[in-house]
Amino acid sequence: MSELSVPHLLGIKYINEADIQLIFETADHFKEIINRPIKKVPSLRDITIANLFFENSTRTRLSFELAEKRLSADVVNFSAAQSSVKKGETLIDTVNNILSMKVDMVVMRHPNPGAGVFLSKNVKASIVNAGDGAHEHPTQALLDSYSIRERLGDVAGKNVVIVGDILHSRVALSNIFALKLQGANVKVCGPKTLIPKYITSLGVEVETNLQKAIEWCDVANMLRIQNERLDISYFPSTREYVQQYGLTKPMLDRLDKEIVIMHPGPINRGVEITSDVADSEQAIILDQVENGVAVRMAVIYLLASKIK
């Protein structure tokens, strides 16, 4: 298979395992390119991409922008986080205004779940979902799986635990879909109040004890506590959360094996993980950042090849 089965990347649940492998093989090629002295390729010289961020984002936006520029695409940035673009029609109007500038692809982050799907049905452009509410964040899940594959050789058969606020996390949901597609075993770990009721229907087990979870896993993906999404108190205090679900060096030292530590960032140091864990050899957090550019280059390149 040399092309994706879909014209957009709206979520992991819309793609298949062959798509994931194609993205990874393409990312391998781009990763080699971005480590050369000249990091640019002319692949998308005639493609224009608009980055629409209706929610604040630094790392994802920069990663996409860098990926687009490495491919020599023309890039238009639109930050609507401060503007009043919140309603459905206004979303289409905004995008249509941008598309009238002859844009081929839209990378969008939006606070409403399903915004990307809605857009894909209403505008003529290839859509990449850069995060829609607490729903999906497909490129993050792809770069996470790609980073596991790079460190451990394969994702199939690996035990992966996702720790933290599963309820509000689009990273968790996309990761669960991606890991299950590739044949990994997945558990989630966190306070009961932050684990959605439907989670077991996705073929995922729940573990409430962090020490037991890390004894079981090959990889621990530590999610950020999203204070901005916690409209009510889901746990008594940050201090209590840290005592039960914060990963520390002594906990890792008690294991009879080395596990891989991941974090989608930005890290609240001393909350999800301590600094000595974040900066340890077991952590692949900076690899995830580097791989994010290669994986996003692959996604954009493969979708663009369907436009022409």
Automatic annotation (TrEMBL):
L-aspartate binds at residues 87, 170, 224. Residues 157-302 form the Aspartate/ornithine carbamoyltransferase Asp/Orn-binding domain. The keyword DNA-binding does not apply. InterPro entries: Asp/Orn_carbamoyltranf_P-bd, Asp/Orn_carbamoylTrfase, Asp/Orn_carbamoylTrfase_sf, Asp_carbamoyltransf, Asp_carbamoyltransf_Asp/Orn-bd. Signal peptide: none annotated. One of its GO terms (biological process) is 'de novo' pyrimidine nucleobase biosynthetic process. Carbamoyl phosphate binds at residues 59-60, 109, 137, 140, 265-266. The keyword Transferase applies. It is an enzyme of class 2 (transferase). Coiled coil: none annotated. PROSITE patterns: CARBAMOYLTRANSFERASE. Its EC number is 2.1.3.2. Pathway: Pyrimidine metabolism; UMP biosynthesis via de novo pathway; (S)-dihydroorotate from bicarbonate: step 2/3. Residues 8-150 form the Aspartate/ornithine carbamoyltransferase carbamoyl-P binding domain. It catalyses: carbamoyl phosphate + L-aspartate = N-carbamoyl-L-aspartate + phosphate + H(+). Catalyzes the condensation of carbamoyl phosphate and aspartate to form carbamoyl aspartate and inorganic phosphate, the committed step in the de novo pyrimidine nucleotide biosynthesis pathway. Belongs to the aspartate/ornithine carbamoyltransferase superfamily. ATCase family. HAMAP family: Asp_carb_tr (MF_00001). This is Aspartate carbamoyltransferase. It comes from Neptunitalea chrysea. The gene is pyrB.
